[in-house]
Design goal:
It contains 14 helices and 38 strands. It is α+β, with helices and mostly antiparallel strands and about 750 residues long. Bound molecules: 2-oxoglutaric acid (AKG), fe (ii) ion and zinc ion (ZN). It is found in: Cytoplasm; Nucleus.
Amino acid sequence: MDAPVENNVKPVRRSKEDKKVIRKQLKASHTLLKHEGISTAPQPTKSLVVANGGLGNGVSREELSAALKQMGEVDKLIMHPNKPYAFVKYRSEESARKAHINLNGEKLQCGENSVTLYLSYVDSVTCEEEASVPLPEGLVLVEDFVCSEEEALLLAAIDWSSTNTDVTAQKALKHRRVKHYGFEFRYDNNNVDKDKPLPAGIPQECLPVLERCVKNQHIDIMPDQLTVNQYESGQGIPPHVDTHSAFEDTIMSLSLGAKTVMEFRHPDGRLVAVVLPERSLLVMKGESRFLWTHGITPRKFDMVPACDPQSFGDTTPDLRTSSNLTLSKRGTRTSLTFRKIRNEPCCCAFPSACDSQGAPPAPSPPPPPSLPCCHADAALLEEQYVHRVYDAIASHFSSTRHSPWPRVCHFLCSLPPGSVLADVGCGNGKYLGVNLELSAVGCDRSSALVQICAERGFQAFVSDALSVPLRAASCDACISIAVIHHFSTQERRLAAVQELVRLLKPGGRALIYVWAFEQEYNKQRSKYLKDHNKELPENHNPAENSPEESQEPQGKSSVHSSSHSEDNYRTVDNNQHVTDDKLSVHTNRTAFETKDLLVPWHLKDGKKRVEGDSGEGGKKDQQKEKSKKTSRSKAALDCNPATSPGFDSNIFSHSSLDTIAATHSSKPIPGCDTSQTCSSALKSESEIIPAPVFHRYYHVFQQGELEQLCAQQTGVTVQSSYHDQGNWCVILEKALNR
Ligand SMILES: O=C(O)CCC(=O)C(=O)O
Ligand SMILES: [Fe+2]
Ligand SMILES: [Zn+2]
């Protein structure tokens, strides 16, 4: 009797438990229907609602995900904030059945507490609260594809310290570092040398992961090429389509170490930003691989859904419209991109993007400019990398130039009433209204900036600083603020000073400011450098107290091509050493390493200005201008940047938007890189036109260099010279006897 008792009792007891579970499960599904309007399905499906498994029950995503994943591969897991349930969709119905059988009535430990899970089938998993957008066709994101241990193992397998960089074609690109296994991907021709395999194949540690990829049908054949990209916070990769002729259809990218946001763009303008969580696998096939570009905007923060819903299956939260977003600081992300080398030409269904089918390669950026060796070259360089750039960025530039600088104001206020002042290179005219007792006139090479001066009621005209159409000896004073550093030869800088001297009356004075090579002086770092460590989200408003205030605290100085190729400007090594005469692109907010360089300007979006509006709006504008004019007289007394009058910030004129559109759609213009967007992927309005990056040529002055330049002029004396927030400054006086 003994043995059968045990056999008999257990099934009875189990069925009692089963009944209890079923009762509770039914109760849970009634509650879901009554309180949440969720109806459960009588037949097995791939999707389940997990009662008691919600964030509202204190269950974390990781805890639930770990339990669910034991039953099979999870396609999506949706957890709404404060809800007492979660939804899970498995990749197969079999996995869902397994979860239904094994997890129903099971206790899940959540920190110190535990909850009992009740699972019911649902027909579909929808996410009504979050606006979502479809993922590009063919794109799949598999969360938690590797566990933390595997992640650590894979990261350890990548040896960045290796000195033999040829084995894995290791490269320190300016905006990320890369390592290739199997075959080198060459950024100069966007292709691979198929008959030159690298000595190092795909590391052994990757094989279990790849086998899982094949088993789960993410890829048909084992990949033979691996590119490891490592992105520090603030780094990224330009939008590109992986060359069709180089690789087969499926491309898989594993995200390790940190999450990021990858942006996918369709040629028709659609943009889908996808959060790639740490340890997730991104699979690009078909249209998403062949037609859509993918890229990562270099920035230090991303906007991600606040409740971290991560994968939404074949949709993704619409990061542009969602109201439930939070800032997520970027960490160091290492991605492993696995590809299969293609040995036959590509015959995909997307000929417009297919190099095998004759599609032209993406336009490459203009070649990097060199230091000019003659007058004509210098004029051309300045035309392309100074004049055109200021015209294109005029509105945005002006919106960041609010406050007159105290020592410039002091100079202007020291001039006797009635003095004639010429501001040569007056920009948006911010110094023209400082002292209303003066008879002030400005000139600038940029007609867009002169237009802004005119709109503000200032006297200004378009002119080159080397030949100002004013009579000799007609000015009591001249100022040249942040202008002469844009001349690209010593002769032209000398000529610019000479022109100022020509304009001065005998006894007249000129104030000159140029950007200093030394951004640290008397142990004081300039504001420009000090802002370097400020980690701020995109579109931080710039500091306002440097004439050379730069807008970028994020180190976003990268220059990417719109193709896959890396920085076509000369890529400076990590120490920014110059090895040829090509101009290097400066990283904003860092110390200068060279004296002649290109400084990026990240054009940012703003309100569009209604131009030519003669109605009410126009009148209001006039009134606004009037009140500004009144406040300008106050500025004569008040030179504190914090209290002096500012102008409307962030005003875009049509002209600059037109310029952006034009530069984006047509062939690239020198000085402008339209491929690197700086508009946040999350701003809806600005999304249509990616904001380009422009490069301005500068010659930064070393200590004593400006004085030397002035000393070469006859008939002038340097009255004083000083360093002011990263600028070298002199006050010149023209001799009385001239
Ligand atoms: O970092 C990634 O996930 C993508 C890398 C990539 O697109 C590439 O190397 O082609
Ligand atoms: Fe790629
Ligand atoms: Zn193709």
